[in-house]
Amino acid sequence: MKNKVVILVSCLLLVLSFHACKKKETQPPVPQTPGPMMPGQMPPAQIPPGQMPSGQMPPGPITQVPISPEGQQQFARPGTMMPKGQSKVIVPESVKGKWSAATIIFEDKVSKTKQEYTVKLNSDFTIPNSNLNIRVGDFLPDFKMDGLTLTSGSNEPRNPALGIRVFENNKQIFPAPERQWGWLFLKVPSIHRFEHPKYSIILKEGVKKG
Fold it and tell me: How far is CA 194 from CA 10, 19, 53, 85, in A?
């Protein structure tokens, strides 16, 4: 009788173990919840092969693309920020002695009057009926900038510019004291212009040596 009971209990345990194992095998996998998505980022399954998700950088170091000399000249045109430091003006032989003066237009914003003055290059000029004094530098008919070097690409007036310093009551107000020359550009007078609450100075033209 005891043997029958033992056999019956053993059979019952085997049946229970079989059902437990089968239940574990048929249990569905737990779905994984994806992390938060960045704006514009695509789910991994939707990312086209060979492309990175939007807003992410590819692995590895960042390589800078070198700029050609032609590209550097683009950055050197008027309208860009002039580099810090003491600039150097180089007047090429094709320009030296070919220009004797420049004509500037002086405007009094208060009285709303304008007056033209022809000023000699590399000289000082006091504007009548004002407390302004101008130190006139070189005239570059085809202004070019390469780093801190300022020069003329030719003797043709393609981009005329006049170097000046403006003093008010013997204090330099243009350009900033750490710079040697400020520049008036004929074709783009708003670039690096002389700013004053009462006065305005712009370049009209260069005067060739007669």
Answer: 105, 93, 48, 20
